[in-house]
Write a structure and sequence with these properties.
The protein is of the alpha+beta class. The chain is built from 1 helix and 5 strands. It has one domain (3-93). The longest helix has 18 residues, at 3-20.
C-alpha cells in the first residue's frame, strides 16, 4: 500500500473514532473514561440522553447529556484532540 493511501486510511480511522464518540445509545447507562497525566479514571455518569457538536474546525466541541438518578450532567470535550486522542473522553456501557 502506498504511503498516500496509508495516510488517507489513518486520517479516515481517526475521524471515525472521534465522530463515533458522539454515537452513544439513548437510554443506555454509561461509564466515562478519561486519562489525565497518564492516570485513567472511570466515573458512572448515568443514562445517556443526547449529544451534539458545536463550533467548527479545531475549535469544535462535543457535548453529551446524561441523567444520573434525576441529576442531569453535561460533559463537554474537544472534538478532535491530539493525533493519539489519549486525552479525550470516552464512554463504555455499564455492565
Amino acid at each position: 500500500m502506498s504511503s498516500a493511501v496509508q495516510l488517507k486510511q489513518s486520517i479516515s480511522d481517526m475521524m471515525n473514532s472521534r465522530i463515533s464518540r458522539s454515537m452513544l445509545q439513548v437510554g443506555q447507562h454509561y461509564i466515562m473514561i478519561k486519562e489525565v497525566n497518564g492516570v485513567t479514571t472511570e466515573e458512572d455518569v448515568g443514562t445517556f440522553v443526547h449529544s451534539y457538536m458545536s463550533g467548527s474546525g479545531d475549535g469544535m466541541t462535543l457535548h453529551w447529556e446524561f441523567n444520573n438518578g434525576g441529576k442531569v450532567t453535561m460533559i463537554t470535550d474537544e472534538m478532535w484532540g491530539s493525533v493519539s486522542g489519549k486525552e479525550l473522553t470516552h464512554f463504555r456501557i455499564k455492565a
